Structures are given as structure tokens and as C-alpha cells.
Amino acid sequence: MRLTLRVWRQPDADAPGAMVTYRIDGISEDMSFLEMLDTLNEELILKGDEPVAFDHDCREGICGACGVVINGDAHGPERTTTCQLHMRHFDDGDTIDIEPWRAGAFPVVKDLVVDRTAFDRIIGSGGYITVPTGAAPEAHATPVPKPDADSAFEHAECIGCGACVAACPNGSAMLFTSAKVNHLNVLPQGAPERETRVLDMVATMDEEGFGGCTLTGECATACPKGIPLPSIAAMNKEWLRAARKVTR
Predict the structure, then answer these.
(1) How far apart are CA 182 and CA 190, in angstroms?
(2) Beta-strand (E) ranges in 91-149?
(3) Residue 116 CB contacts under 8 Å (≥ 6 apart), including other chains
(4) Residue 81: how many CA atoms within 13 Å on its side-chain side?
(5) Nearest CA to 67 among 20, 19, 100, 109?
(6) What's the rounded Cα separation, in Å, for the pair 36 and 89?
(7) Would 85 disulfide with which of 24, 33, 89, 168, CB 3.0-4.6 Å?
């Protein structure tokens, strides 16, 4: 497979960036998208050029480290992570545009690498539960209704990749934040921080400069783990409940 790649190159956060064109040959349809970028980088290194910087870690669709905008779509044409996207979804002779996540709260570090530590600060403001130290409690000591357990598992699938932010025309982090809030608030173990969690995490999200949500739904469409759009409504309900309780 022969491809033309238009890749965003930016030497550092302060320097201007631009799309640079590369032509690459011998790409197997069985390669992942990141393996294709590895091949490009091998060729660049052999030529004495600077390789393209991009984020990756497990390459199994679990860690959430990878993520680029491919032909205008976060993670590319399939609903999966960039590392699990395979080149069989492209045709011989295609031109592929590859850009970093585009969001004010995700500044570019270098090339395709962006700073997503804003997510870490949102988690740090409330994404935890209070637990006693010592021996672990008996697994069945706190019964959880199955609908609540199913909802918690569904929201716990969020891997924090940031595709929701990159896909949103407003650069909103509502889907990510709602997944983290709803994951814990639906469980009895998360009850002690239920009010403070949603208020603090939403406040931190706003402080980090993410845009407002207008429910366009692009976030849920791009999410590789299928976090549902109604998750945002559920978090809004939690926020209103907590705000009323705090102001009484």
C-alpha cells in the first residue's frame, strides 16, 4: 500500500506548526495506524530527519495514551482507538491528514503530542472514594443493585483518551467528566463524596478552560468505549441536586 501522509509538525509548544507531506510505500493492511507511523519514523531516522512525536503506551486500546485526528475524525474512521485502527480501513493511494487533538485545554507539546494533564486535575479534584485503611472489606458486605452496577461498569470504561474533547466543536470535557462522576456516584462506596465530587470536578473542568457543552453529540460518536450521551444529563442532574443541597 502506497500512501501520502500530511502530518502536523511542531517542534515545541511555542513554535508555529505546519502540515508536512510524506510519501510512504510498503504499508501492509494488517498494520495498525501506529505501526504505520513507526514505519514512517524508521524511514525518517534513516534519512537523518527528526521522527514524528506521538503518544502511545499499551497499544491495546486500554490505556488511553494514543490519539490523533485522522482526516478530521478523532481516532480515525472507525469507532476505536488509534492504536487499534488498522490500515485495511484505507485504500492504496490515499492521502491521510494526521493532526493532534485540537482543544484549548490540550496544548500541543510537540508534533502530535498534546498535554492532557487537565484530565488528571479533574480526577484529582473528586475522582476518588473514602475507604478505611486496614483489611479489605468482605466483597458482599455492601450489596449493589444490578442496574447500578451495570451503570458503574459502563462509565468505568472511559479510558481518558480525550477523543470526546477533540471531537467536540466547543472543546468540552463534559462526557469525560460525567463518566468519572457517574461511575462513582451511582455506587454506595461513592456516597460520602457524592455532592462535593460533582461540584468540585465540574468546577475544575471549567477552570481548566474546556468549552461549554451544547449537546451536539460528537463526543459520544467519537468515544471508542461507547460512553453514552445521556451520561451528561445524568451528571447535570447530580450537579443540580448537589447545588441545591449545599445552598440550603
Answers:
(1) 10
(2) 95-99, 108-110, 113-114
(3) 101, 106, 160, 162
(4) 23
(5) 100
(6) 13
(7) 33
Cell of 148: 447500578
Q: Please give the DSSP secondary-structure letter assigned to residue 217.
A: -
Q: In Å, how far from its chain's centre is CA 221?
A: 13
In whole angstroms, give the CA distance from residue 205 to residue 196: 14
Length, in residues, of the chain: 248
Mind listing the pLDDT tens digit for each residue in 161-200?
999 999 999 999 999 999 999 999 999 989 999 999 999 9
**Max CA-CA distance within the chain?**
67
Residue 87's φ and ψ, nearest 5 degrees, are -70, -10
Collapsing DSSP to helix, strand or coil, 6 comes out as strand
Query: Are 142 and 189 contacting, i.e. CB atoms less than 8 angstroms apart?
Result: yes
Task: Give me the chain's average pLDDT, please.
Answer: 95
Do residues 189 and 131 make contact, with C-beta atoms less than 8 angstroms apart?
A: yes
Cell of 27: 504499508
